Amino acid sequence: MGCFHLTVTSLCFVVVVVGVLPLSLDAQLDPSFYRDTCPKVHSIVREVVRNVSKKDPRMLASLIRLHFHDCFVQGCDASVLLNNTATIESEQQALPNNNSLRGLDVVNDIKTAVEQACPGVVSCADILTLASEISSILGGGPDWKVPLGRRDSLTANRTLANQNLPAPFFNLTQLKAAFAVQGLDTTDLVALSGAHTFGRAHCSFILGRLYNFSGTGKPDPTLDTTYLQQLRQICPNGGPNNLVNFDPVTPDKIDRVYFSNLQVKKGLLQSDQELFSTPGADTIPIVNRFSSDQNVFFDAFEASMIKMGNIGVLTGNKGEIRKHCNFVNKKSVELDIATVASEESSSEEGMVSSI
Ligand code: HEM
Description:
CATH topology of the largest domain: Peroxidase, domain 1
Shape: globular
Order of helices and strands: HHHHHHHHEHHEHHHHH
Bound molecules: protoporphyrin IX containing FE
Binding site for heme b: 196
Number of strands: 2
Main location: secreted
CATH architecture of the largest domain: Orthogonal Bundle
Low-confidence stretches: 1-26, 342-355
Distance between the termini: 74 Å
Binding site for Ca(2+) 2: 197, 247, 250, 255
Helix content: 40-55%
CATH class of the largest domain: Mainly Alpha
Strand order of the largest sheet: 1-2
Mean pLDDT: 90
Structural class: mainly alpha
Largest sheet: 2 strands, antiparallel
Number of domains: 3
Keywords: Calcium, Disulfide bond, Glycoprotein, Heme, Hydrogen peroxide, Iron, Metal-binding, Oxidoreductase, Peroxidase, Secreted, Signal
Binding site for Ca(2+) 1: 70, 73, 75, 77, 79, 91
Strand content: under 5%
Radius of gyration: 23 Å
């Protein structure tokens, strides 16, 4: 009986282990995933990003944001990169992305360079993740070992992009909820908001704060009055949709200044200032900690970026390794065939045609 019990127990154990193991192994990312298949991937990505950022320092910020906007919509699966086709409704035209996302061409340049070295091996989702870590380093922020092995989605979801990406006018409760949906906690919210230590925002996202906060006809009271005047100069009411630095002090650097700005009411978006100006909020001590010690912020940023990079990843035999980041492979094949066909017909007919 004891033996029977033992056998059943161990059988159950085997079933449980066999049942669970493949799943958990499947979901496992690994920093050395491309060690044998594309050992130089990190340096290839770094070279492209470094070259672009010499001419366009803001690109570092844009690439980190692209990764965030990918991960919050059906996971880090490069769905944000898919263009509109007959079957794909691109996320790029979702409200938070439209006329705002940057870096899509840079990702394509990275992909071209990576494909040259190791064709068909590295996913676009991993390229976005690697480009983010490299952008952090080049922006003066932390480096970390990037878990890799993500695969690319076969679909995009514009509705989910509109639903899941937090808005700049969110209050703290709404921000926490948007992060909780992704399995991210309050510390992640504060640490990742720290990405607003660099980059730019369009005036349209702060006009309400400057001229008519929540329909009061007055500016946001949690905005420093000198900073308010400066922002009004850059963003006149009814004027052009100019760009404004997130960090007026060190606009292109990842550092703790974002948090010290919040302490003196110089957060740019309402969602930024909420972290410090919501009365009694548990985010206030976190802001204070990050502001007083940059290493504490960097450690938290690294941990939360890795956590964000793990959201809803496709591994194993799910999804695919896209050939071109803007199209699923089936579509890429059609495009290749179309190119070949048009090239053949153009050489026959002696005219240049393009798709
Ligand atoms: C907490 C909720 C967040 C809200 C409401 C928010 C909202 C925004 C908005 C409205 C912009 C300006 C876009 C434009 O004007 O074109 C922006 C820019 C940016 N966001 Fe966020 N964001 C949030 C969280 C994050 C997170 C988690 C990251 C990355 C980890 C991030 C990284 C960035 C960066 C780097 C920029 C500047 C991009 C550039 O200059 O091209 N944001 N964000």
